Amino acid sequence: MGSLPGGGELIIIMLVLLLLFGASRLPKLARSMGQAGKEFKTGMKEGYKEDPESVEGPCPFCETQVAEGAKFCSSCGKSADEIVAERQKQKSA
Ligand SMILES: [Zn+2]
Q1: Which of 25, 54, 82, 87 has a beta carbon 3.0–4.6 Å from 78's, enabling a disulfide?
Q2: How is the chain split into domains, by residue range?
Q3: How far is the CA of 67 from the centre of ligand 1 (A)?
Q4: What pTM was computed for the model?
């Protein structure tokens, strides 16, 4: 005893959880926790997807304002893909 602290405590925590929530409610609790985690992940993915796809803002090559949905920079002619890629490169640098 004493060489593995936490092992005995973990069992006590499990017993307390069983007493608090009841054995029948634990699977439901685990399921709702899993669902919340999944929804959080999809939310993160959607938030990440929206940002780099928007071409609106100053062109990283010539500083000209590029309109939302534009395919090319009206000043230097760089494509929307190049503008987005260059922005990400500058952001990570
Ligand atoms: Zn430009």
Answers
A1: 82
A2: 1-53, 54-93
A3: 11
A4: 0.45
